[in-house]
Design a protein that fits this description.
The protein is α+β, with helices and mostly antiparallel strands. It has helices at about 1-25, 30-40, 235-240, and strands spanning about 45-50, 55, 60-70, 75-85, 95-105, 105-115, 120-125, 140, 145-150, 155-160, 165-170, 180-190, 195-205, 205-215, 220-225, 245, 250-255.
Length: about 260
């Protein structure tokens, strides 16, 4: 009986020992380094992550002031107020999982990440102006994005909508962009390739679709324009005229390295 009791004490003490090991024995900078290395090596991608203000909590919680993502060594996304908390309910399925929350600008991030790498993240009212990757296109863009993101190993897929789009396309290679007020579509990222599966734009002067991919920082895109030609001014008509395929339908090639 005493032996059984001692065994039970040992078993009961294992979780406490693991938690104490997490809190006191594993340095935060080691965790930070391992997370950054995991992002850099995922899927042979050109993405990197730097973490600021990482803190540990009990029960394997992690908190960070900033998560700064880069693509091709250029700022891509900044997440503030990040929190990751261990979710024990997935242990019964043989999975380790964490709930994650954070901010993109004033917008919210909420999701679940399961190991091996799989997860889903919902983004609510994130400000496009707070996503620095978009500035590479020579466009000042505002609006609030709503998105569902799905992660499966080295593939990330996103379905998104921007109902209040506002674009200042000074110096842009995309005709008529400042006339569009709604954006919705889907994209995927695998390795060094960002593929735009479908992206529809809607505005007071017609519709457009953007398709193609960006691989290793090189654009291979096409912008399909379906404008209401009665609403175009003379300059707009001249700008898109050389791209006409058929009456009311234009295809603008967008190729070359990102600015």
């Amino acid at each position: 009986m005493i032996k059984i009791r001692n065994i039970l004490y040992v078993v009961a003490g294992i979780p406490v020992f693991i938690i104490l090991l997490w809190v006191f024995a594993i340095p935060g900078n080691l965790i930070e380094e391992k997370i950054e290395d995991a992002v850099a090596m995922s899927g042979n991608s050109n993405m990197s992550l730097s973490i600021s203000g990482l803190k540990k909590g009990i029960f394997f919680a992690l908190y960070a002031d900033d998560l700064n993502f880069k693509i091709d060594n250029k700022p891509a996304l900044n997440i503030t107020g990040f929190a990751g908390n261990f979710s024990p309910r997935y242990l019964a399925r043989g999975r380790i999982a964490f709930t994650v929350t954070g901010k993109i600008g004033a917008g919210d991030i909420d999701g679940i990440i399961k190991l091996p790498l799989e997860g889903s993240i919902k983004i609510d009212r994130a400000e496009l102006s707070a996503i620095p990757y978009l500035t590479q296109f020579g466009i000042n863009i505002d609006g609030n994005v709503y998105a569902d993101i799905y992660i499966n190993n080295d593939v990330v897929k996103a379905i998104f909508e921007v109902p209040d789009l506002n674009i200042d396309d000074t110096g842009s290679v995309f005709p008529l962009l400042n006339t569009f007020r709604k954006l919705q579509g889907a994209l995927s990222i695998k390795g060094n390739t960002l593929k735009i599966d479908s992206r529809g734009l809607e505005g007071e002067k017609g519709f457009a679709r953007l398709k193609g991919d960006i691989t290793n920082g090189v654009m291979n895109l096409s912008l399909e324009l379906m404008p209401d030609t009665r609403k175009l001014n003379v300059m707009e008509s001249m700008l898109i005229g050389k791209y006409i395929v058929s009456p009311g339908y234009y295809i603008v090639p967008v190729k070359g390295p990102l600015p």
